[in-house]
Write a structure and sequence with these properties.
Shape of chain B: globular
Distance between the termini of chain A: 36 Å
Number of strands of chain B: 11
Number of helices of chain A: 0
Number of strands of chain A: 11
Distance between the termini of chain B: 41 Å
Oligomer: heterodimer
Structural class of chain A: mainly beta
Structural class of chain B: mainly beta
Largest sheet of chain B: 6 strands, mixed
Shape of chain A: globular
Radius of gyration of chain B: 14 Å
Order of helices and strands of chain A: EEEEEEEEEEE
Radius of gyration of chain A: 13 Å
Largest sheet of chain A: 7 strands, mixed
Order of helices and strands of chain B: EEEEEEEEEEE
Number of helices of chain B: 0
Chain lengths: ~110, ~120
């Protein structure tokens, strides 16, 4: 298995632009998590899905952030409009019941908003 | 609600010396506890986990951790540090109750190995 695949690996954009981050979870995994990592705040859970349904989005910072999971093999995290303070590494992770609570992380998307 | 506190954002040890990374947890229900490692420019990888079985948990790469309920701790140790252990280490917690999938991470400890 290729693991959790995230794209793009790096994204540089200007303030006010729309940014879309993509994630393909491991096949058969029915949980998907979006995390954000910054020096100041560490790893923060933004939202997670179970069977494509959002379960907890309490970590989404504000209405500029939205996440979707249209099917079991694809999820997006969108920021519109982007701001410099959104600069961070965004990780996607997946898991399934029976994986002994182990999260499988992607390599992350490094987002820089200028 | 669950949370973890990692004491020391940076730890340096000499090659061959004992590694000790500290983690204390807070949980309103019996916790599941984890240690993850992050190498530069990579995602996190699971080192080991405690899920209410043996309190001394052995993980990959020679690491182990002991769950101590009386101290609300889950410290990570390795008897002899290797250069390849240089990385950032994260302690994490979630509730053990069914449906509680939310994993909360600590702020991380960067481990440096001195040759």
């Amino acid at each position: 298995d290729a693991g959790v695949i995230q794209s793009p690996r790096h994204e540089v954009t200007e303030m006010g632009q729309e940014v879309t981050l993509r994630c393909k979870p491991i096949s058969g995994h029915d949980y998907l998590f979006w995390y954000r990592q910054t020096m100041m705040r560490g790893l923060e859970l933004l939202i997670y899905f179970n069977n494509n349904v959002p379960i907890d989005d309490s970590g989404m910072p504000e209405d500029r952030f939205s996440a979707k999971m249209p099917n079991a093999s694809f999820s997006t995290l969108k920021i519109q409009p982007s701001e410099p303070r959104d600069s961070a590494v965004y990780f996607c992770a997946s898991s399934f019941p029976g994986s002994n609570e182990k999260l499988f992380f992607g390599s992350g998307t490094q987002l820089s908003v200028l | 609600a669950q949370s973890v506190t990692q004491l020391g954002s940076h730890v340096s040890v000499s090659e061959g010396a004992l590694v000790l990374l500290r983690c204390n947890y807070s949980s309103s229900v019996p916790p599941y506890l984890f240690w993850y490692v992050q190498y530069p420019n990579q995602g996190l990888q699971l080192l080991l986990k405690y899920t209410s079985a043996a309190t001394l948990v052995k993980g990959i790469n020679g690491f182990e951790a002991e769950f101590k309920k009386s101290e609300t701790s889950f410290h990570l140790t390795k008897p002899s540090a290797h250069m390849s252990d240089a990385a950032e280490y994260f302690c994490a917690v979630r509730g053990s109750n069914f449906g509680n999938e939310k994993l909360t991470f600590g702020t991380g400890t960067r481990l440096t190995i001195i040759p």
